[in-house]
UniProtKB/TrEMBL annotation:
The lineage of its organism: Bacteria, Pseudomonadati, Bacteroidota, Chitinophagia, Chitinophagales. This is DUF2157 domain-containing protein. It comes from the Bacteria. The chain crosses the membrane at residues 46-67, 79-101, 113-135, 141-161, 166-186, 198-218, 230-253, 265-284, 291-308, 314-332. Keywords: Membrane, Transmembrane, Transmembrane helix. The keyword Cell membrane does not apply.
């Protein structure tokens, strides 16, 4: 059954209510939900792309004004404002924008895309505020990671308060940035290549594993349940991307890595391929289609990476891509056959 998004939501709510009233068992309710598919009408498409354009322009404007022109610094020096004053100023603006965003959520509940895009302003002003507070208390980079971690905590709180997936995404990105920045500050000088014996890719792999294991915690509270999928799949994407870099570099510093032949890191590539295979099998068994697709995408990236690592200078380019096209065609054909068997 194909209906628009509003009708699909109403039907799903009706099925949930029937299940609560014990008119349907869970198996039948799941079957009914799976039979409901929604489509995006023309107005939804216009609203979606307009929102993407608005968010993109806001980010470009922020970059042009703050990063290029540095108008905040110019105003601060012109009026002799301290960095902590700028932090308080933008903090106050962030509080005001949060109040406006909450009010919009209540007054214009139907305008979900517009409300969500408005939270970008909250994220930007809060980020500026925390940055200036951090600079005012610590002029060096040694504790910048802790400042970013505080920003991540504030993004998480506001994401729950405003029910905003954009702010939750900002929280995840801030956590990654915090870990990267702080472990760099605490790593061994002068090259800062290792932290507790781990280079950058290995540190990021460790964080990715932690993100995956912690993401189910979002399901333990009603206010964060809606963020489980975002946290779960973001963790997998970050883990597999970090592991891909690790499979290329190994646990080596850049100076050592650039001085050896790539063939010496072949076991890292094999290990990454085996891990991908295990994740793909796990996703298929769990019937997690999104994770399955993510694993397949990284399989393709893995193949391209290995080719550029080992065979780019030694094989015919046309022959390689012809074999690659044939292998993908066979994979697609087998996938269609498997999907047909499962649907029968």
């Amino acid at each position: 059954m194909r209906v628009n998004k509003k009708e699909a939501r109403l039907l799903e709510e009706a099925v949930d209510q029937w299940q609560k009233d014990e008119l349907l068992d869970r198996t039948k309710a799941d079957e009914l939900k799976k039979s409901i598919s929604s489509y995006r009408n023309e107005f939804d498409s216009v609203a979606f792309y307009a929102t993407i354009a608005a968010v993109s322009c806001a980010l470009l404007a922020f970059g042009a004004l703050v990063l290029d022109e540095k108008w905040i610094e110019r105003l601060r020096k012109l009026f002799a404002f301290s960095e902590i004053f700028i932090g308080f100023l933008f903090g106050a603006v962030a509080v005001l924008l949060t109040w406006i965003a909450k009010r919009r959520k209540r007054k214009y509940a139907y305008a979900s895309l517009a409300n969500e895009s408005f939270t970008v302003l909250v994220a930007l002003t809060l980020g500026i505020s925390v940055a200036y507070f951090t600079r005012s208390f610590q002029p060096t980079y040694y504790y910048y990671g802790i400042g970013i971690f505080i920003a991540a905590a504030l993004y998480g709180f506001l994401a729950v308060y405003l029910q905003s997936k954009i702010l939750w995404t900002c929280m995840l990105l801030a956590l990654i940035s915090s870990w990267a920045t702080q472990t760099y500050a605490w790593s061994t000088p002068p090259s800062h290549s290792y932290f507790l014996g781990m280079n950058y890719p290995l540190r990021m792999v460790l964080l990715g594993i932690l993100m995956i294991f912690l993401s189910p915690l979002t399901q333990q509270h009603p206010s964060t349940t809606r963020y489980f999928n975002l946290s779960w799949y973001a963790g997998w994407i970050f883990l597999l991307l970090s592991a891909l870099f690790l499979s290329v570099s190994g646990n080596l510093s850049y100076d050592v890595w650039s001085a050896i032949k790539q063939g010496k890191l072949f076991m890292w590539a094999i290990t990454y391929t085996l891990v991908l295979s295990g994740i793909l099998v796990y996703a298929i068994k769990q019937k997690d289609e999104t994770l399955r697709d993510i694993a397949i995408v990284f399989f393709l990236l893995n193949i391209y990476t290995r080719y550029f690592e080992y065979f780019w200078d030694h094989t015919n380019k046309g022959l390689f891509f012809a074999l690659l096209a044939l292998s993908f065609w066979l994979i697609g054909k087998k996938a269609e056959q498997l999907r047909k068997r499962l649907s029968e």
